[in-house]
Design a protein that fits this description.
The protein has 358 residues and is mainly beta. 5% of the residues lie in helices and 44% in strands. The strands form seven sheets. Strands 15, 16, 17, 18, 19 and 20 form a six-stranded antiparallel β-sheet that branches.
């Protein structure tokens, strides 16, 4: 049964191009690092001078692909630089699995999820950390036989990196037995980290929620249950919403007007997903919606838009970011296709009743 409309939510998209699109085009034109990529999660650092853009598959010069990178944005001047692994002559993903080839001889890799920067000014600099949830995937056939869709999810891996130099310190598999891709979105509330996950059943994708320490997210987890309580048992994790994308945003609305969830509406056929919003009084829902934000114009001719995220800027101003992809031949022929789209959004909401029980 469809959820009711997200009452009291006003969404206005700015039709003019966002400056970030030009900045990323300039970076791509240098042929020195990022030329295109998908996922595009943003994390603001506490000092406000830099923002980290987390990408999954990344197109480099000479049509080389790596599975993830971070692009550092200097917010004031607007400059961008790419952080990769490997060497300048042989670039690689910034974060790789412990084993790039499994015992069956099939390749393994990591695609990014969301993350959180723990760089509070009160913390000593040597304790500043970036925690990112990565999704580990594996080829399902040997590489020489593999097509674009011959892969399968294996597990979520929580990766600890230093700040500001982005060195990998640890990798911790989230082995809770749920089969959930944790880290589709995260949001920090004080010392608590809300971690949203997706149970991806192919045609149907379901949203779940867990809570852990923002300072030590590999520590004890609690799971949001169908009864509306927090449980230490992974089996109690409840499906809170169906029809979400693998990457979403969940964030509080300004003026204590509740919570907002932005996602592709995957109840529609692949290649036609609109970007929609849901609203709730509590970060666990129940969610009302969907309400249309954008029917992406890129959804045509075998090309498709997917995995939107929303970044709060100031007041009722937000930045909507979504990925665009298509057949590999199209991507290699035109690398402007395989770049995130940036749209300025003004969003206001009428107040709701105070949140329910926690």
């Amino acid at each position: 049964m469809p959820a009711p409309p997200a009452a009291g939510l006003t969404i206005v998209l700015d039709p003019t191009p966002h400056p970030l699109a030009h900045r990323f085009a300039v970076l791509a034109a240098t042929q020195n690092g990022w030329r295109g990529g998908d996922s595009a999660y943003a994390i603001d650092l506490a000092h406000g001078r830099q923002r980290l853009w987390l990408f999954s598959d990344t197109l480099l010069a000479d049509n080389r692909m790596v599975n993830n990178c971070i692009v550092v944005e200097d917010v004031a001047p607007g400059g961008l630089r790419t952080v990769l692994g490997g060497t300048p002559g042989q670039p690689d993903a910034l974060v790789t699995p412990i084993d790039k080839v499994g015992p069956d001889g099939l390749t393994q890799w990591l695609w990014t999820g969301h993350g959180v920067a723990v760089d509070d000014p009160a913390l000593p600099a040597d304790r500043h950390r970036l925690w990112i949830f990565y999704q580990e995937y594996q080829a399902t056939v040997p590489d020489e036989q593999k097509t674009e869709w011959d892969f399968a999810w294996r597990q979520t891996v929580l990766v600890e990196l230093t700040l500001p130099d982005l060195r990998v310190l640890s990798r911790t598999p989230i082995a809770d037995g749920t089969g959930v891709q944790w880290g589709a979105a995260v949001h920090r509330v004080g010392d608590e980290l809300l971690v949203y996950g997706v149970a991806d059943e192919g045609k149907h994708k379901h949203l779940l929620l867990a809570s852990t320490s923002a300072l030590r997210p590999a520590a004890t987890w609690r799971y949001r249950s169908a009864a509306g309580t927090w449980s230490p048992e992974p089996a109690d994790a409840a499906r809170l919403l169906t029809g979400v994308s693998n990457e979403v945003s969940v964030l509080p609305l300004p003026d204590d007007a509740g919570w907002l969830l932005v996602t592709s509406d995957t109840r529609r056929p692949h290649g036609s997903w609109p970007i929609v919003a849901y609203r709730a009084q509590h970060p666990a829902g129940p969610w009302t919606g969907p309400q249309l934000i954008l029917d992406p114009p890129e959804n045509s001719a075998g090309r498709y838009a997917y995995n939107p995220t929303l970044l709060h800027q100031t007041g009722n101003s937000f930045l909507l970011v979504y990925s665009v992809n298509g057949p590999r031949a199209d991507v290699l022929a035109d690398d402007t296709l395989y770049r995130p789209r940036f749209r300025h959004v003004r969003l206001s909401a009428e107040p709701q009743l105070p949140p329910g029980r926690d």
